[in-house]
Write a structure and sequence with these properties.
The protein is of the alpha/beta class and 257 residues long. It has two domains: 4-150, NAD(P)-binding Rossmann-like Domain (Rossmann fold); 164-252, ProC C-terminal domain-like (ProC C-terminal domain-like fold, Orthogonal Bundle), CATH 1.10.3730.10. It has helices at 11-20, 37-46, 56-61, 72-79, 99-106, 134-142, 152-161, 164-181, 186-206, 211-217, 224-234, 237-252; strands at residues 4-7, 30-32, 50-52, 65-68, 89-92, 110-114, 125-130, 144-148. The protein has an eight-stranded mixed beta sheet, sandwiched between helices. The structure holds NADP nicotinamide-adenine-dinucleotide phosphate.
């Protein structure tokens, strides 16, 4: 049994705690930092084996594996005063901060980075971790599947790609707005798009064909789907997406501030 500690009790910590308490690791004790007090109290009241520490140092002192889940902007100030034990497993969820930087701030030698997404809550996440570390992989396997990555460039590419969630919903929002302009109401638009994209998600998950093959299979030659993607690409849609990914990559790789 491993005692898990979380410094920063926000959105991603809450999702992980809810997922863990429904997982094979449900009996592992969890200790939370006291901020945000309301969310920490809700989690401690809801789940057996979730406690709130007096402060951040008490989280470290009371856990074997510590997850760092504060925002990047405050991370250095939060972490520098803390004392980690030799050999303590530290897992940073902080976007765009390298293992070396975490070591410089904390003195911790055993640092792993991870990019969990909100799907940890339903134990359906695929979570890249860098570098591969068996104990950390065990935790994320319980929340879906760990994706151990040995190459930092590849890890940063996964991290950048995870930023597509907002763009995905933004794309649907744009389509729904257009549908509303044509006289449909917002609920009708969302319902139709949910069915369309839900079914496409199922195809993506279960159909082994390549993405170009899937696009071809869903685009009759000379038909409407072909027309829309051709216009999207010609108007710069594909280039904008590629540039956006490259820009986010620069940020997660620490090359841009
Ligand atoms: N959300 C995601 O899907 C996601 C995914 C992967 C990685 N991450 C990373 O995980 C980290 C947290 O993200 P989040 O979305 O969970 O952010 P969040 O909801 O803002 O949570 C951060 C928490 O840190 C707390 N905090 C602030 N100062 C603190 C201190 N001195 N000591 C202890 N806790 C303190 C905040 O408390 P107050 O509310 O009281 O200010 C807040 O509850 C970020 O570095 C982010 O890059 C997030």
């Amino acid at each position: 049994m491993t005692r898990l500690g979380f410094i920063g009790t926000g959105t991603i910590t809450a999702a992980m705690v809810r997922g863990l308490k429904a997982s094979l690791l449900a009996d592992w004790p969890i200790v939370l930092s006291p901020r945000n007090a309301t969310l920490a109290a809700e989690l401690a009241e809801t789940f057996v084996g979730v406690a709130i520490a007096a402060d951040n140092q008490a989280v470290i002192d009371g856990s074997d594996m510590v997850f760092l889940a504060v925002r990047p902007q405050v991370a250095e100030g939060v972490l520098r005063p803390l004392q980690f034990r030799d050999g303590q497993n530290v897992v940073s969820l902080i976007a765009g901060v390298s293992c070396d930087t975490i070591t410089a701030w904390t003195g911790a030698q055993q640092v792993t980075r991870a990019v969990p997404l909100p799907f940890v809550e339903t134990r359906a996440d695929v979570t890249p971790i860098y570098p591969p570390q068996a104990d950390v992989a065990n935790v994320f396997d319980a929340l879906g599947k760990a994706l151990p990555v040995a190459d930092l460039h590849a890890f940063d590419a996964y991290a950048a790609t995870s930023a597509l969630m907002g763009t995905y919903f933004g794309l649907l929002e744009t389509a729904a707005d257009w549908m509303v302009q044509q006289g449909l109401n917002g609920a009708e638009a969302k319902s139709y798009l949910a069915s369309l994209f839900g079914n496409l998600g199922d195809v993506l998950r279960h159909d082994a064909r390549t993405l170009p093959d899937l696009r071809a299979a869903h685009s009759t030659r000379g038909g409407l789907n072909e027309q829309l993607f051709t216009q999207f690409a010609a108007a710069g849609g594909s280039a904008a997406l590629t540039q956006g990914l490259a820009s986010v990559f620069q940020r997660v790789a620490g090359a841009a501030k």
